[in-house]
Known about the structure:
The protein is an alpha+beta fold. The chain is 49% helix and 16% strand. The chain is extended and about 105 Å long.
Amino acid sequence: xxxxxxxxxxxxxxxxxxxxxxxxxxxxxxxxxxxxxxxxxxxxxxxxxxxxxxxxxxxxxxxxxxxxxxxxxxxxxxxxxxxxxxxxxxxxxxxxxxxxxxxxxxxxxxxxxxxxxxxxxxxxxxxxxxxxxxxxxxxxxxxxxxxxxxxxxxxxxxxxxxxxxxxxxxxxxxxxxxxxxxxxxxxxxxxxxxxxxxxxxxxxxxxxxxxxxxxxxxxxxxxxxxxxxxxxxxxxxxxxxxxxxxxxxxxxxxxxxxxxxxxxxxxxxxxxxxxxxxxxxxxxxxxxxxxxxxxxxxxxxxxxxxxxxxxxxxxxxxxxxxxxxxxxxxxxxxxxxxxxxxxxxxxxxxxxxxxxxxxxxxxxxxxxxxxxxxxxxxxxxxxxxxxxxxxxxxxxxxxxxxxxxxxxxxxxxxxxxxxxxxxxxxxxxxxxxxxxxxxxxxxxxxxxxxxxxxxxxxxxxxxxxxxxxxxxxxxxxxxxxxxxxxxxxxxxxxxxxxxxxxxxxxxxxxxxxxxxxxxxxxxxxxxxxxxxxxxxxxxxxxxxxxxxxxxxxxxxxxxxxxxxxxxxxxxxxxxxxxxxxxxxxxxxxxxxxxxxxxxxxxxxxxxxxxxxxxxxxxxxxxxxxxxxxxxxxxxxxxxxxxxxx
Length: 645
């Protein structure tokens, strides 16, 4: 498709017209059926989201963040909460897509064409002439599980979604009066005292019988499901490890250094001055001729007297940035200027003056005023870098050769990984309890966080026939092949497996209930005027809390304190924190928010408006959930019972 776009604008318009129409009826998911198999984790009218689709989406999110923030520890993104957030975003996307389809929201052809022309990802894959590298685009999209048509459809979808979400967010506003009232209340401070009743102080009184444990187990079977898992043996072919095995002699390094020491020591910089005569791209021939005549006259003048270049530039150059400095542009490296200008500067010697150079800015006369070559760095200083570069370059070649052998070997000798490991000097690794959602052993997270690899080990050939998987490219120049050694079906864990944890939970629940009862007693006593401690639990020292200050007070206590009616102080309230305990709060005073500078107030109003419109979008999505009967079928990890193990 991209080849057609590059070659014919009229055909592009026609295809995009079909594309937009098709998208309205089938949605972006209609262009790819990848990951359509597997357990369903969420559903809405006409759409299901599978475990595999969820996994793939989360992989994409991790890769996007990894590229944006290379120093980010991606293990942080592997938590159940982070994965669940990805699923929620998937559901939201599908809901808006459903609204786009049902309400027939269509992005116009011109808008889609413009989006393709200005797409940063596509433009980064164009050559110097502006032609798109179609093969590179298709290869990279294939790694994402997409076709070029699907990518274009995704852009069209984004525009259609923007008409909905933008229509909501773009019409939101924050009235200064409402914003000030809200922000003043938000940043208000309260003086509080509090007392915590800890469940651990009541555990001795919280007795649990065997019958209670058994009853809880019977009533909560769904919480004790062990997922389907596999134990696997696997091989990893890693280019980084290949590089470590490559030896490069000092003689080879020295020879490479001698051939490249100028380049290795740093980039050459040049200083130039210019005289610019502005010329519009669509200037009439007569105007071009007149300007060229003027430029030739100036060129003859400065070539006759090179020392006059700065004076001529001040009097004639139409570059407002450099003309006052005699046309001086300062030092710059190769490639910093537009191609024609750059080529002229780096082809001249110091002091030379160019012929007329034409660019999109106009006509230039250029003088090179200085050439700054970096000092040659000694071999000893560059040796470590040279070794790393040579190892990396040779490793790429060697890795490509070994990768083919690796892929062929695990396929041809599909009943064992040992021959491949022995032939290539690789170690057979072991991972136990790998589920469709990820590994049990977080030490294997860099490998088993890859959804394509997990899909491979849960295939019929891998599980039923115990055959090696094909070599799976998991990114960062790593190939993995695996073999299932054991398969465990999903099952309910036995009472023996979870009984201890159930008993612990029931004890914790009973202790929390006893703590809450004691806390409520204390609340009534203190509210009635008693100044005494209750069972040796006393109120803390006075502390000032607010939403914008760092204090050693849990956020939910601060929120509870700020919700107390400020007109009826001192006031009492409480917070039941469940298994974390019961807290009694006394609010004794209020500090109104101090006035803020005008610039800060303006910024806060803008932030308030953004928060308001974001809330409106969330409310709209909630309406769509009801409209399309959206349901997430997996438990929210922040709400799940923490005893499944």
